[in-house]
Design a protein that fits this description.
Largest sheet: 7 strands, antiparallel
Strand order of the largest sheet: 20-21-22-23-24-25-26
Number of helices: 3
Strand content: 35-45%
Number of strands: 32
Length: about 500
């Protein structure tokens, strides 16, 4: 009999759903504009079986992809597990066979050498194909209409790295996908493989290099001319992994390194900048103007996520973990190894998003999950990220204006997604989609807000009769993109 441990990762609102879903014509309060035609895809971890070792990190669960298909003022929901190698092996055995996150040393011997990827972190559509991602493995192709799994994808053997980022960037100008794999030769290795994949789906550029120390390189920045790698001391350790301790840990004694390389450069062209210890994980956007390179990140004084333990055993410091959007500026014409930092707003938060039509370009509008501790919170629900997200925020980088929507004291919010009003609408002219966790009712809603008027509240609420676990990342794709990819 399956029994999940009595831990926050597996109980209450976080209880694994372990289900595939089809809900046609979801209940809607308000009105969905009839010209919204497309789908919001999101990825989330949902373990099919109790953890082999009795516990594990939340984000090591089996990958589930949820599709919210908007058309003619209606919404249909579809949810499917990604049939990864791991999922299929465990389904055949009827139990968990893989051990801890990024640690194969405690796996069942029957799965030695099998991909440990869970495809639970992000979902992207590029070159007419849709992929689900986990950064420790290759992407897995899925059908954008049915969500059925097509199989692992290594671009015809061109991706030699054992890993590939879950935060690949798609250049709206060239159509290129820019990605990389860290720990490219295995756990705790300092090797990074960098790739540019053309709009035809062919790998057009590759180079390898090593970072100053092995670490969790979850996200990165891409501009029209450069790529920016963030080496922040959530460090990986093969020794800790072999001992059964978490493979990744926060090390406050190490400096931060930022590597900047031309988009089509080689490892020899990589220039390293060095700065004092701090934390950042996700990237809002990056762009360059001549030899000036900018990258916008939620930056905090210390580790923002409590599931990465301090390597010295020091307790999690919630105050030092408060991150604010900060612009890091690098002048490539100067020999300095440091960089300038400028805070972009007062909101504390993470999981930033933009109008993706402006990725890699100068931009104006940014959105993020916001934590406002001044507002009441009385929900009975655990926050896996450590962030009690009670607002969605908007920052206008041109004016400094901030706007936000508070979800109320008995709910929290997940990562937002921007939907352009039309293909030709101005930047930021569109909608925000975001899942709300309704703790008191143990279910979820999807909120549709005007991206320029968040504080006015939802234009429509898609009421779901079920509870969707907290997701990681997701994206919006127009109906014509989906149909073209589904019919290829």
């Amino acid at each position: 009999m399956s029994h999940f441990p009595d831990l926050p990762e597996y109980t209450g609102f976080n209880t694994p759903l372990r289900a595939e879903l089809d809900i046609t014509d979801c209940e809607v309060e308000g009105e969905i504009p009839s010209d919204i035609d497309g789908a919001f895809y999101r990825a989330n971890p949902d373990p099919k079986f109790p953890p082999l070792l009795g516990k594990d990190l939340y984000f090591n669960g089996d990958g589930v992809i949820t599709q919210f298909r908007f058309k003619d003022g209606k919404v249909d929901l579809k949810q499917r597990y990604v049939r990864t190698d791991k999922f299929r092996a465990e389904a055949a055995a009827g139990r968990a066979l893989f051990g801890a996150y990024r640690n194969p040393f405690f796996d069942d011997p029957t799965v030695a050498g099998l991909s440990r990827g869970t495809a639970n972190t992000n979902v992207l559509l590029h070159a007419g194909r849709m992929f689900a991602y986990k950064e420790d493995s290759h992407p897995v192709e899925i059908d954008p209409i049915t969500l059925e799994t097509k199989g692992n994808h290594d671009y015809g053997g061109r991706i030699k790295s054992v890993s590939f980022t879950a935060h690949a960037k798609i250049d709206p100008v060239s159509g290129d996908m820019i990605g990389f794999g860290y720990d490219a030769k295995g756990i705790a290795t300092p090797d990074v493989a960098y790739y540019v994949i053309g709009p035809d789906g062919e790998v057009k550029h590759e180079t390898w290099f090593q970072v100053p120390y092995s670490n969790l390189m979850h996200d990165f920045g891409v501009t029209q001319d450069y790529v920016i790698f963030l080496v922040v001391p959530v460090c990986s350790s093969l020794e800790r992994a072999r001992q059964g301790a978490p493979t990744f840990g926060w090390d406050a004694s190490k400096d931060v390194f930022v590597g900047i390389m031309p988009r089509y450069g080689s490892g020899a062209d990589l220039r390293w900048f060095r700065g004092p210890n701090c934390f950042c994980s996700h990237v809002m956007n990056a762009f360059n103007q001549g030899t000036r390179v900018y990258i916008d990140v939620p930056m905090s004084k210390s580790n923002m996520f409590p599931f990465f333990p301090d390597v010295t055993g020091k307790p999690f410091d919630r105050e030092a973990a408060a991150g604010r959007m900060t612009r890091w500026s690098f002048d490539l014409s100067k020999p300095d190894e440091g960089w300038e930092k400028r805070q972009l707003g007062n909101m504390v938060g993470e999981f930033p998003k933009i109008d993706e039509r402006y990725a890699t370009l100068p931009y104006r509008h940014g959105y993020l999950c916001v934590v406002d501790p001044t507002l009441p919170f009385s929900a009975n629900g655990g926050s896996i990220s450590g962030l009690r997200v009670n607002k969605i925020g908007h920052v206008d980088h041109a004016t400094g204006r901030e706007d936000s929507y508070w979800v109320g004291e008995k709910s929290s919010l997940q990562e937002p997604c921007f939907v352009p009003r039309s293909k030709t609408s101005a930047e930021g002219d569109g909608y925000i989609l975001v899942l709300a966790n309704r703790y008191e009712e143990s279910r979820s809603d999807v909120l549709l807000l005007d991206a320029q008027r968040l504080s006015e509240g939802p234009l429509a609420v898609i009421r779901l009769p079920i509870r969707l676990r907290s997701g990681l990342h997701g994206n919006w794709y127009d109906g014509d993109q989906i149909e073209a990819a589904g019919n290829r």
